[in-house]
Amino acid sequence: MAEDGFWSNGLSSGLALILNGEDKTVNSQKNRLVAYHDDFGHKSLERTLEYVFDLPYRAISPVTGSLDATLVRFIIKRCVPELPLQCDSHLRNREGICVFGHGCRPVVSIDQSSICGDLRIVSPPSLLESLAIFSSARANACVWKGKWMYEVMLETAGIQQLGWATISCPFTDRMGVGDAEDSYAFDGKRVKKWNEEDESYGQPWVVGDVIGCCIDLDEDLILFYRNGVSLGIAFAGIRKMNQGLGYFPAVSLSQGERCDLNFGARPFKYPIEGFLPLQDPPCAASCISQLLQCLSRLLEIERMGRAESTSVEQLGRLQRFVPLEDIFHPVADAICEELFSILDGEEGATEYIAWGLFLTLLMDLYGLHVPHDHSSLDKVVDVVLKFRSSSLLFQHVIGALSYGCKTASLVLMECPYSGSYSYLALACHLLRREELMILWWKLSEFEFLLEGFLSWRSPNKHDLQLMMPSVWWPNSCEDVSHESSMLLTTSAVSDAIDKIEEKHRDLCCLVIQFIPPVRPPQFPGSVFRKFLQSILIKNRRADRNITPPGVLGNTLLVSLYTVILHYLSEGFPMADICGWSKNHGCDAKDDVGFLHRGGQLSFPMELFLKNDPQKIDIPRIGGSFSNLLESHDVHGQESEVISWEEGCMDNEGTRVTHFTRQKPCCCCSIYDIDFTRSYRDPIRSSAKGSRGHSSSIPERSAHVAAECSTGSLNDEIADKPSSSDHHHSQFGYRPVQHTRTIPKESNLSSAMLREEELLDIMLLLYHVGVAPNFKQASYYMSHQSQSISLLEETDRQIKERPSIEQQKRLKEARNIYREEVIDCVRHCTWDHELVFEVWNIKSWSDEDWIKAFVCACCMYRISLLSHWKQRGMYAACMRTVQLLLVLSKDDSLFGFVPEFYLEALVDCFHVLRKSDPPFVPSAIFVKQGLSSFVTFVVTHFNDPRISSADLKDLLLQSISVLVQYKEFLAAFETNDAATSKLPRSLLSAFDNRSWIPVTNILLRLCKGSGFGTSKHGESSSSSVVFQRLLRDACIEDEALFAAFLNRLFNTLSWTMTEFSVSIREMLEKNHVLEFQQRKCSVIFDLSCNLARILEFCTREIPQAFLLGNDMNLRRLTELVIFTLNQMTSTTDSEFFDWSVKRHGQSPEKINRGMILAPLVGIIVNLIDANTEVESSGRNDVVEVLASMDCPDTVLCGLQYMLGFNWAGFSKGNVHFGKLSQLEDFLSHLISRMGSRELEASVLRQEAECEDSMCCICYTGEADAQFVPCLHSSCYGCITRHLLNCQRCFFCNATVIQVIKDETKS
């Protein structure tokens, strides 16, 4: 009652504190919760303080004065152990180490005198980068006794050798750690351990891995850990060392490699039990730990008051402490004052505490997942920021949070708040304070730390195995439970990635809104722009397969791409701050995502014409930037803005814009509704086909649809909860404190970050960051498809019950194929791509389709192609292709377009096209998305203004892919640009470089009408439109067709020669390598395709062979006979069929009939046309064949064609009529050859008396001469030779003129 009366009467001034002399070690917690309350259940101030400072009951006598920081500090001084005792106790356990340096507590770091090569400290204290081919260095500490460790965080994941070495280990530009005696290293790039010689060890490492390098000198062992998991004993029995001559931490890095060494200056990310850090931790660590625990208990008072659990409520009634607001500030101020006095007194203590104890306190207070405790965290931060030394403390906290983002792993049991989420969430909340944002911005490592926040650690094979222990695919023999397990796993991982991406956007939003305190004032977005420019400069010479030095890998690029795509597509929540809505002349309430704005569109040309350092080395469509400036006068055009009306390049009848009644598919709510319905009931919707969409994220499904109406984007954001399922205000979320304003008279248009600039950057990020992910996924998809085929083939062979030895080998092979499939499925699931498309879907049952659809939906949620991203990518494609079409009208401007615009456009378009489930129904995609794209690719794949042959090939290959699909081919047939330009452009593009894609396109356009082709249903999907257009183009432009035909003859002759040589080599060696078999298969396919095109030419343009000069006919017949000779010369039919077989194709489809069928078609076409062409002036096919100097080869080849099993090849669709024609033709040819033989004998007799025969063909008279050398030959041989070479057969002189002797003719 006395205590209660004292509290009710208020606190008087003065200090009246008496601490009891009880021993604190006595267990004072017995019945503490009950004993601490008085008769009325209220606790006094003294009991509350005893709880906060973990003191025994009644350790504090009644307080008679006011509670202030001075009084609390007095309590702390009496309760916290003395510092010297702590320090001495710690040092007694550190024997066996020697640190070379100055001072009583020297810092372990890299010994500068030991560096060999060129090592740069990117960020202190020990973030290293090698600038030389191979650089090595040791630390300034050695150990000879005990168990020690240090950690290495990998900033890059290339060749690095990490480990231990003695002072005698030599470092050169070729030798490093592990390359000499008493030198031991681990290299996760090559997955080897090194000690003079290499040996397989460990796991492959990835960017963000933390490698623990441990040495146990008690047991003479060296071990390595990856992210806290032991890789096993690397080296045993290492040599004992004497004091001062022990093992030094040492690293060797190849050029461009970076790593962050932690010798103990910071707490280890993954401490290993029993191993000590090389750097002695601060003496005050234990003392500071107690102070922070006191601060945590202080805040627990408020948490207990907010507890919602029934049991906790009952407990709270027994624990009624003094209200927190009455004691928080004096107690917290005193704790922090004591904390900073200790930190200021010991060098290096602030960094150690910030990375460890203090960061742990902040994360515990804030919470690792929603709902976060904003109130408790803000109370602590407010108090800490009162102290001047807090700046250094929070500098290290920000660095630790960035480090945590780079090294965090996705843990399945922690999803969805796993990975870097907790670090990002805390960082976003802290950086909403202006003073902390300014503090971060002023750091020299600002951009480096921001890179870390936006990076994540990609899993390797072993990580994926832990993350996805169960894998399933259709028709697999895996346990049925694996299917549901995989669905749950992919769903959980997808949710975690969604949360991380949300926090990436929040953080970038804070950076964009930040206005730096400089003069003259800058604009919102200026800091973010500078950061983006820095990233682009680092990546300007980046190969898409190799991460350039100084970049954390493409996870950073992918994160930035995703952030910008969301801003441009879904809208920026603070668009009014950046002035984006004002720039476009619309009110804030009418502002919509940039990519979904219709009407008048524009693009500033300065983005192409300005001489920016980050773009100076980027290739342009017309060549290098410097050369373009010399050849094009663009002075004054930098300030121009290109404008166009949305959809202006589309046909008027099919134009769809944001202002037409039918909206673009990216903004039409009906597809979002279908998508949502499909995902909620995927099995039911899959029965109707894969028309649904795969993302489970609500993603404001009607958001973009509403953008086409008069609704308010800002209203929509304000009315909806955050994606963390709670309003910020619900937990006291701190509003952004950035209140600095910009003068109105500033030039907004040129200084602020514009949306067009973000689009430009986003396309480059896609090119250098996102596209490689799809490329890698494509590799795994292809490899998975092959492995599944091999697995199924092996299962089939096992069922045939082979011998015991064969069965053993087959089972071993099956295990290998199965592991490859499982590995590919895991990588495809993670690598932001679908595995759905690579499965052998032709063999699936309806049930397989349903299961696959369900699995694909969940896998798809992990991908870069969640629905809102698809929508944004589609809109970006449409805007980009419209911009390119508009610019193509101006020769001076078109050449300045960066090449990555075209590459990103084509790649992104095909990613959307291949998505399954599709972004929108294919019919809508073809109608709305394909028209402009088709117009562009058919117009420019042979555009002379495009200097890069690779870029032209990309456009040509894009056409080649699209025309393989019937629905896409229809889009070409209805496109004006395609029908008017494509036929002639294809004929002219058939050259030494592009003949393969052109061949594929022509084959697709002409297929279905040849001999023996109806068996695959090809005639139903042939393009009659383009066949007619190609025929007209060949007839109207004889010179173009003649050049095309000449290149076609030469190419087919070359492919058949290469095929013949490859077959002969395999027969001679009597063994076949895989690449040789693959080469034969590819060449054979190409030869078949070329023969089909020749067949089309003889059917549609027979006059090119039957009228005029007989050179084309002779070349054609010679090529036919040459091909037949190659087919008949291979006597082993089984060997031939095996040589041309490919994975996944049936043997009956891959055989000699593929090349024989077009040859039959060629001859029959000529026979048919021979009867239709007037006899006068007509070239006689029979006569040409009969005149060849190899009659036996001709007859043998034709007879082989007649005797081939066409019924088996064509599956009943045999053209018996055409085979009868061929048989009649052969009979007529034999008769003609008999007559020719009689004539030839007479000519040979005459030739003995006259030396005027052509010495090339020996069938005609030498009636023409070369000028100036006057060598003679027949006119036909000379004409054919000059098609490909302008030099004389005999003397190689340059031919100026050919003189024909008409009298001899």
UniProtKB/TrEMBL annotation:
Keywords: Metal-binding, Transferase, Ubl conjugation pathway, Zinc, Zinc-finger. Its EC number is 2.3.2.27. It catalyses: S-ubiquitinyl-[E2 ubiquitin-conjugating enzyme]-L-cysteine + [acceptor protein]-L-lysine = [E2 ubiquitin-conjugating enzyme]-L-cysteine + N(6)-ubiquitinyl-[acceptor protein]-L-lysine. It holds the Pfam family zf-C3HC4_3. Residues 717-728 have a biased composition (Basic and acidic residues). GO terms for cellular component: cytoplasm. Residues 684-703, 713-738 are annotated as: Disordered. InterPro entries: B30.2/SPRY, B30.2/SPRY_sf, ConA-like_dom_sf, RKP_N, RNF123/RKP/RSPRY1, SPRY_dom, SPRY_RNF123, TPR_RNF123/RKP. It comes from the Eukaryota. The keyword Cell inner membrane does not apply. It is an enzyme of class 2 (transferase). GO terms for molecular function: ubiquitin protein ligase activity; zinc ion binding. The keyword Metal-binding applies. Residues 81-268 form the B30.2/SPRY domain. One of its GO terms (biological process) is proteolysis involved in protein catabolic process. Residues 1254-1288 form the RING-type domain. Residues 684-696 have a biased composition (Low complexity). This is RING-type E3 ubiquitin transferase. It comes from Carnegiea gigantea.
